[in-house]
Write a structure and sequence with these properties.
By secondary structure, this protein is mostly helical. It has 3 helices and no strands. The chain has helices at about 25-35, 40-45, 50-55. It is elongated.
Length: about 55
């Protein structure tokens, strides 16, 4: 428990890791949305919510 930060919940075994939406990933996602791809499909492919993609 000493290695865990305060307020952080332990991750369940087998649960998919949520990747951080870095600037480079966000730019790639936004370009795909601008090119006409539906935002929900782009968000799913990056394993984030549509709000994280948020153009």
């Amino acid at each position: 428990m000493a290695n865990r930060r305060r307020g952080q919940q332990p991750q369940k075994a087998g649960a998919p890791r949520k990747l951080k939406m870095t600037v480079a990933r966000k730019i790639k996602a936004i370009v795909r949305v601008i090119q006409g791809e539906p935002m929900d499909l782009v968000a799913r492919s990056f394993n984030v919510t549509a709000a994280d993609v948020g153009c």
